[in-house]
Amino acid sequence: MKGGITAMIKLIATDLDGTLCNANHCLDQTIADYMKKLSARRIEWVLASGRAMEIVEPLFAKYAFRCPVIALNGALVYDRGGKLTQRWPMKTQPAQAMLHEIQKRGVLAVASMEKGNWCSDPQAYRQRMETLVRRLPDPALFAQEHGFLSLTDTPLEQLGACYKIEIYDSRPALADWARAATDFKVSVVHGDVIEMTDSAVSKAAALRQLCESRRLANEEVLCFGDSENDLEMLQEFRYGHIMRNAEEPLLAQVNHIAPANTAYGVLRVIENYTGIPIGKEQA
After folding, report:
1. Helix H segments across 71-120?
2. SS3 state at 70
């Protein structure tokens, strides 16, 4: 593969957690340097994440690197300067009904709203996050890089449009209940996070539109992911790669498999396709 299609790759789209980020859900200097090296060669990066922009931005601030961001699984899209360029909120009535049903059921959930992040149980959410962070190799690094979402006390009805709902529950019956709601696109991530956006929203749809605006052909794009919310994107684009560390049922659904994120899998695949070395080039 090396050197064979160097001129074809013009854009790289990658998920963050479990894909580009390391075991601490953070970036490091090796990743940042390689991103800058490819950008200098006019190969554009696009981050396609389930995260909100307020969490994505701090990851890159220390490395002085900017690129377009597809946030909240495609519900919001930002340009390289951080300006919001596209927004796809959920339909108001179904979203409000879903959030009120979540409250009634006593389920832990966070909703990314137009005017802040609503949570059904802020204390339980913080406890969940603190428990997850303690399991990381370097919890202090995670907290230093991005910490937690800021939650609002504003009543739900005053928060405007809803872009994404995350339900934290591993019960299959709850996932089935969410999938039965036809107004939403639903994916289950890491076994216990049920993600919901508008039915027309996905990372694939946002990336497709971005590529059309740049007049890029399908085969000029490399993309990477590790979760159910990445599948549509990885299947639509010819050079879609799922990470080796993805859950086993997902691996068979994508044509290409990249090494694990903890082994710089994204960087190694890009190096193979472009011939641009990860380390310093010899003079």
Report:
1. 92-105
2. strand
Q: CA 36 → CA 51, 77, 253, 262, 276, distances in Å? A: 22, 21, 31, 20, 12
Long-range contacts of 206-210, Cβ-Cβ distance < 8 Å, separation of 24 or more: 206/48, 206/70, 206/74, 206/77, 206/86, 207/13, 207/46, 207/48, 207/70, 207/74, 207/233, 207/237, 208/236, 209/77, 209/86, 210/46, 210/68, 210/70, 210/77
pTM above 0.90, yes or no: yes
Overall residue count recorded for the chain in this entry: 283
Q: Is the separation of the CB atoms in 189 and 203 below 8 Å?
A: no
The dihedral over CA atoms of 190, 196, 201, 205, expressed in degrees to the nearest 10, equals: 10
Of 207, 186, 261, 219, the C-alpha closest to 22 is 261
Give the model confidence (pLDDT) of 70-79 as tens digits: 999 999 999 9
**pLDDT, tens digit, 9 for 90 and up, residues 99-145:** 999 999 999 999 999 999 999 999 999 999 999 899 999 998 888 88
Residues 40, 44: Cα–Cα separation, whole Å:
9
Integer Cα distance of 238 and 26 in angstroms: 28
Q: What is the largest CA-CA distance in the chain?
A: 65
Q: Do the beta carbons of residue 261 and residue 21 sit within 8 Å? A: yes
